[in-house]
Amino acid sequence: MDHTVKAFDEDITHIRGLIAEMGGLAELAISEALSALVTGDEELAKQVIERDKKLDTLEAEVDAMAVRVLALRAPMADDLREIVAALKISGVVERIGDYAKNIAKRIDRIEGRSTFEPLTLLPAMGELAAEMVHDVLTAFAARDPIMAREVIERDEKVDAFYDSIFRNVVSHMVENPKTISSAAQLLFVARNIERIGDHATNVAEMVHYSATGDYPKDIER
Amino acid sequence: MDHTVKAFDEDITHIRGLIAEMGGLAELAISEALSALVTGDEELAKQVIERDKKLDTLEAEVDAMAVRVLALRAPMADDLREIVAALKISGVVERIGDYAKNIAKRIDRIEGRSTFEPLTLLPAMGELAAEMVHDVLTAFAARDPIMAREVIERDEKVDAFYDSIFRNVVSHMVENPKTISSAAQLLFVARNIERIGDHATNVAEMVHYSATGDYPKDIER
Fold this sequence. Notes:
The structure is a homodimer.
Chain A: H1 2-39, H2 42-73, H3 77-105, H4 122-142, H5 145-175, H6 180-212
């Protein structure tokens, strides 16, 4: 019995490590994609796009490991919920990486970046979202539902940021019709960051579920 | 043993039924959201938004049922992979519903809808994406990796549609700067549909995994 418990603990520690690695890569992708966007650094953008494959591989590794643990250890109760949460969370973190990759792919569709005031607002918004990703994975590692809730509440700030940037970009478009195509890219970037916040919120709900057995009820999904 | 096998079959049939129900709701949400968008039917849009809660509930039901099956039946090999796929697929279908809900929420932000040519292109794009959702869940129910691959290949058409609508909307913006704010909503709608296609592709990859034990390798995720 002790042997099985120890083996399970090792497995779950391994899975947590893989998810932490995914989270670190996703955070890095967000910040580097936005940095490349602002500076127009196409080389950095390429790196972000290339590195995204690692997230796909890690997701597949988490899934394979989770299936192995389920098959070999038949975990129960809290342990089972944690494996289920890991399976779902790996999928969402992979999606978060996709959003960052998508931002990186837009770098070369933006012209005259020095005249775009909204461009300067995006990194701060991205930082907020990247912090949510960081903190929600810390909450997962610590099985901390209170921290998870706190991440969910922070999503409002990202949404407010998004609304403000949306208005700013639309005004810019109205005043500079020639830049509309480039400015539309910024709308999508802001939207991608907003979705990253949503996905971090989604993970926070799963962490809450994993830690308590319930989804947080009173927060709109 | 026979008893256990039969009980497992009943459980997996139940889970498949729940996922089929989720898929049906997601398809309906896509087509009704686009119909409401084109006609400006706010009542229908409200229904789409309200009905989305049902998808959240069904996802939680799939998760609870999957956890129960894992705990009670300790399935192996193919059966285990199918439960794992169900857990991941329920999360993605819930997300697809969110995109449809998001489209429905934009209805009242569009002014002068009768003059928007791009508006008339969106339902056809939505239909393509809704068909992908339908077919990928049929592939899941039938454990059919070939059908899953076929869905993955169809995503290119949705992407091409998106590119064409993007250009169309941007031209419209350039020619009619006063409509930029409304037209930006259409860009997001097109983007949401494009993401629905991506998510259907994501599900198709999981169906492939569930049916064969491998993710399809040669298709970019």
